[in-house]
Amino acid sequence: MLNEAWVDFAAGWISGGISVLVCQPVDTVLTRLQATSALPTSTTNAGFHTVSTAAGGTKASSATVTLGPSAIVRGMISNFGVTSLWRGSSAMIGAVPVQNALLMTGYGVGKRYSGYHDEDGKNGNHNVLVGVFVGGCTGGILQSFVMSPVELIKVTQQVIGKSMSSATTNVASGLFSRSGAWKGLGATLLRDGIPHGVWFVSYDYAKTELTSSYESMTGEGDWKRTTTKEIAIPMVSGAFAATTAWLVGYPFDLIKTRIQAGTGHGVISTARDLVRESGGRVIHGLYRGFTLKLLRSIPASAIGFLTYETAAKVLSGR
């Protein structure tokens, strides 16, 4: 059991690192989009408000300015260069592998524990899914204490434009303060607890069902069967899992970003602000930027699970 847990940890570490490198540009744009209302403004001679270049460009408006993803990308590249799209990746590349390792370890332990107590020995049944859910929630809660200060550093870099060293110093100086390094921890726990249980249950369920359906349609020894089973099914299952998990957890991710960017003050208060900004439309307010989140999380989840499954097989000698 201990050896298997180390395999899960190592495979999760590898998959987390690869996911960050591939998907960080989308994450940078999403963070800026989520935090738009928190960005500093200045007044022009004509009396208009403009979002500063820290937001990725300038744009005039008679009210609050909301930049779209394409405008943010153009502004960032124009003002700071292409590499600015990977801003914040230094903090994430150091922490996400640890985060993913904790999550995958919880997933593997929960699945094996439930399977061990399963009399018929089959995977994908109710007992296994319960274990996977509990393992996912536990891993999600534990890694929140790693990711909350790290994401504060990332948001400080991506939104305010501070350097890695400056952002890290600011966060570290408030290590023992809820308004310092732990700003947004409550929202992070809500985002990473139950949603990660949903993530792993969705993945395991989809993988089991897809594998069962595909095996019933193909013959033994078919190389196409092996390729689909080892590559396509984990990726499709990972994409499905990301969608269901973020449907549950996205509002808390948005709230977390607002709090860490500086305008949010508490989960409930920030949620009310988001709804008010959207003209009273609850879904529109709490799911602002959701499409962009899926554009990042779906490939990240698909790549992450494929990498995890592949690395786990190599490391375990299967």
TrEMBL record:
Q: Which UniProt keywords apply?
A: Membrane, Mitochondrion, Repeat, Transmembrane, Transmembrane helix, Transport
Q: Where in the cell is it found?
A: Mitochondrion membrane
Q: Which Pfam families match?
A: Mito_carr
Query: According to its UniProt record, which protein family does this protein belong to?
Result: Belongs to the mitochondrial carrier (TC 2.A.29) family.
Which cellular component, as a GO term, is one annotated location?
mitochondrial membrane
* PANTHER family xref list: CONGESTED-LIKE TRACHEA PROTEIN-RELATED (PTHR45624:SF4), MITOCHONDRIAL BASIC AMINO ACIDS TRANSPORTER-RELATED (PTHR45624)
Cited InterPro entries:
MCP, MCP_dom_sf, MCP_transmembrane, Mitochondrial_Carrier
How does this protein lie in the membrane? Multi-pass membrane protein
Main location (coarse class):
mitochondrion
The name this protein carries in UniProt is Mitochondrial carrier
Repeat positions for Solcar: 3-113, 127-209, 229-314
